[in-house]
Design brief:
Strand content: 5-15%
Radius of gyration: 23 Å
Number of strands: 7
CATH class of the largest domain: Alpha Beta
Number of domains: 2
Shape: globular
CATH topology of the largest domain: Rossmann fold
Bound molecules: S-adenosylmethionine
Strand order of the largest sheet: 3-2-1-4-5-7-6
Order of helices and strands: HHHEHEHEHEHEHHHHHHEHEHHHHHH
CATH architecture of the largest domain: 3-Layer(aba) Sandwich
Structural class: alpha/beta
Distance between the termini: 29 Å
């Protein structure tokens, strides 16, 4: 018999930050193999220069410094940023988890790169009167795990130099309702991520369930194979100690309240093709809310902001030199068919533009269909100046939002899944078995 009361009384900290720390201490994120060479070009949207090109486009002046801070950096981002940031810029990173920082430092050393990493709570760090002001801050996948994200956003604003930029990725809470159903089912079944056997069973349950719940299978597939094989990713999704559920509008109002200018919205999966280029003109909150409600926008929110008041004109920086372009750029139908030399040319041009802040002259590119230009502009890969190109690349590129295929809803629970759940429930030393069973089946019916 499994005594849940006893389990929850043993060594689970009460404090939210401590619980999150314990989770990432045991399961550092994303925990890809230490000796694997990360494809850092894919992280190009996080670099300070990418944000600065958006500022340049909006005729905003930059901050004078070149220090970048990664909040909740995990074990991979420090290496990626050390490759992306211009020569001479310093990269700082902070993370709650000592094991993440240890892994991040190992990766840096193994690849002869440098970054200044700290173990600690980012909220305390931001308000701790350290003398540094940063010209760029990145918070990818971390704000929604904090105690009071509104307060953190205000503190980030304070620690950014005037003319500084911020890139964030925040969960699209509504689109993640299926994850919450699964997380609650795991909780009702008494699964605890700290027990290996529980993790194994939780995974088995999902593998069984996805055979019958086709929408669940679709969602799981969209998160990639490693979700089910990588413990850190699995726990991050279904057992997280803290996940704030705020609407898009609430998040944006937190940023607007502090004084941030919203520079751009990165549409990773091309879900906003029927709107003006969101990287250049972020969509209105009401538009986003309607799309999210209708299930037409499922991606997370990848947003760029600036703190007004910079002093520096666009200058030039020495940049990374890499031969291989980010993979995302050429995965869309409009760009995948571009020849390899053209892809390479676009990437080389991009690196030049980023280092000098010049504007792309379409005449200096090899011929490409307008559709390729439009997709690349939405990804930030090209950025022509004012004039007719500007209008063409700002305009919507589809008549309506792409429709997702909606698989038929499963109404009954399959026998194998029912037996699996019954077997588990019988092992729990609880008196409210019936009630739990009903709740689990009610949640399954929502998948
Ligand atoms: C989902 S992971 C994202 C990691 C990294 N940003 C990335 O994209 O690969 C969230 C990270 O934020 C860190 N974190 C969560 N709360 C934190 C806090 N209060 N202070 C510092 N780091 C925190 C976790 O330890 C974890 O490494």
């Amino acid at each position: 018999m499994i005594d849940l009361q006893h389990r929850s009384n043993t060594s689970v900290p009460f404090d939210i930050v401590e619980r999150v720390r314990a989770q990432y201490e045991q399961f550092p994120y994303p925990r890809y193999p230490l000796l694997a060479k990360p494809f850092w070009q894919d992280g190009v949207g996080g670099s300070s220069l990418f944000s600065r090109t958006l500022m340049h486009k909006n005729h905003l002046l930059f901050a004078t410094g070149q220090d970048t801070l990664i909040l909740g950096c995990g074990d991979m981002q420090p290496y990626i940023f050390s490759c992306l940031e211009p020569k001479g810029a310093r990269v700082f990173g902070i993370d709650l988890s000592r094991s993440s920082i240890k892994r991040a430092n190992f990766r840096l050393k193994a690849n002869f790169r440098k970054a200044y990493l700290m173990v600690g709570d980012l909220d305390s760090y931001l308000v701790s009167g350290s003398p540094y002001n940063f010209s760029h801050i990145d918070a990818f996948g971390v704000l929604h795990h904090l105690v009071n994200p509104g307060q953190t956003i205000a503190a980030i604003y304070e620690r950014l130099a005037p003319g500084g930029t911020l890139r964030v990725m925040i969960y699209n809470a509504k689109a993640r309702s299926w994850i919450r159903e699964i997380a609650k089912i795991f909780c009702l079944l008494g699964y605890d991520y700290r027990y290996k056997q529980d993790l194994r069973q939780a995974r088995q349950l999902l593998v069984l369930a996805k055979k019958h719940y086709h929408l669940l299978a679709q969602h799981l597939a969209s998160m990639g194979k490693s979700l089910l094989t990588n413990d850190s990713r699995f726990i991050d999704a279904f057992f997280h100690e803290r996940e704030v559920h705020l609407s898009y509008t609430s998040w944006l109002s937190h940023f607007a309240k502090t004084g941030f200018l919203h520079l751009g919205f990165f549409d990773r999966y091309g879900e906003l093709d029927h709107l003006a280029n969101p990287l250049w003109q972020p969509p209105a909150s009401a538009t986003m809310e309607a799309l999210i409600d209708q299930g037409l926008f499922r991606g997370n929110f990848e947003l760029y902001f600036a703190k007004p008041g910079g002093e520096k004109q666009a200058g030039s920086s020495r940049l990374f030199a890499s031969l291989r372009p980010p993979r995302l750029w050429f995965t869309f139908p409009e760009t995948a068919s571009l020849s390899w030399p053209k892809q390479l040319f676009i990437w080389q041009k991009y690196q030049k533009r980023l280092s000098s802040f010049c504007i792309d002259d379409p005449k200096s590119f090899p011929p490409m269909p307008l559709a390729s230009w439009q997709r690349l502009a939405r990804l930030g890969a090209v950025m022509p100046g004012e004039g007719t190109w500007q209008d063409k690349l700002l305009a919507p590129i589809a008549k309506e939002a792409p429709l997702y295929e909606s698989p038929v809803k499963t109404k009954t629970v399959s026998d194998d899944l029912r037996v699996f759940i019954e077997n588990r429930l019988q092992k729990l030393a609880i008196t409210t078995l019936e009630r739990r069973r009903d709740l689990i089946f009610a949640r399954l019916s929502r998948l």
